[in-house]
Amino acid sequence: MSGGLLIWMPVLLAAVWAAHWGAEHLAEPLKKLRQQWGFSVAAGGVFVGLAAASPEIGINTTSALRGVGDIGLGALLGSNVLAIPLMVLTAYAATRKKRIEGHDDHTKQRQAHFLEIDRRAVTVQALPYWGIIALFALLTLPAPWRGLQPLDGWLLLLGYLAYVTQALLRGRSDGEEVEWSSKEKRLAAAGVASLAIGAYFTVFSTEKIVGAFGLSKIIGGLFITAPVAALPEIFATWYVARSGQITSGVTSVIGDHAVTMTLAFIPLTIVGMTINDFQLFWVTLSFVALMPALYAAFIWCGRKGFRLWQVLTLPMVYVLYLVLLVVWVQPFGSGG
């Protein structure tokens, strides 16, 4: 085991650094793209989310090709339970600095421990994403359709296209003239490539570490691969929020989830993924649905954002999920 860890831990650290560098160089290009095409700040999360979802796409493609779909299934569902509380907490921490560009009332909000979010994040992002979860549940929970089949992949693709179309078109205005230097274009392309490559090798090396510890595949996906796969999105959320694009930074988690619950599952639909632990699956999927429901309710009822107690409530719900698994589902054990 120690030999495997010595090999893959440096790979993991290098991959995380690559994802960090890529995320850092995406904040300004994202802002320019939104301005150039006239998209709302809420829709801006689609761009960040699509780039940040590369770990999940990578792990599912790898899982499908290797015949270890449980790792991909666990990574996707685990990341979708964990990511919303993690990204909201990250954005809150990132915006505690004294000044935020474009937010003249930030000092007052900082003193009030408030994280301001455009309310359109609920209607443009959260509610349509909840519709994607409902579609996924319909395709996987009923006994006659349980599991993932090739037809499900096409239906999930249509669901994602509908989500992206409404997110980009709603609230769109006339675009602005934006100048792009050659250096900016190269850095933007390098940022996307670095984020994707770093994300893939983050997941790949974590998969090797899971094997070294002898954990079951779905548990390794839920609690090792999923948190590590969230690292690129943490970096993206941090830098985008600190650049003044707070709503885009926070809503990127929904854009990421929309990808993971649709496009990222397509490799598993192609190979006909079966669900081996149905209780673990439906309990986890229930929390996948609960997180965006709380996210939307907190933004809407919190008068365009999150109060500190709401920011802290989301991680506590994740802790509740872990406790429920330990005392009721009891999925832990060794396995291949």
Automatic annotation (TrEMBL):
Location of this chain's protein in the cell: Membrane
Alphabetical keyword list: Membrane, Transmembrane, Transmembrane helix
Gene Ontology terms describing biological process: transmembrane transport
Pfam families attached to this UniProt entry: Na_Ca_ex
Gene3D superfamilies: NCX, central ion-binding region
Secretion signal span: none
Membrane topology: Multi-pass membrane protein
InterPro entries for the chain: NaCa_Exmemb, NCX_ion-bd_dom_sf
Sodium/calcium exchanger membrane region domain: residues covered: 11-165, 189-326
Transmembrane segments: 6-23, 35-53, 73-94, 127-145, 151-169, 189-206, 218-241, 253-275, 281-301, 308-329
Name under which the protein is recorded: Sodium-calcium exchanger
Upper lineage: Bacteria, Pseudomonadati, Pseudomonadota, Alphaproteobacteria, Rhodobacterales
One GO term describing the cellular component: membrane
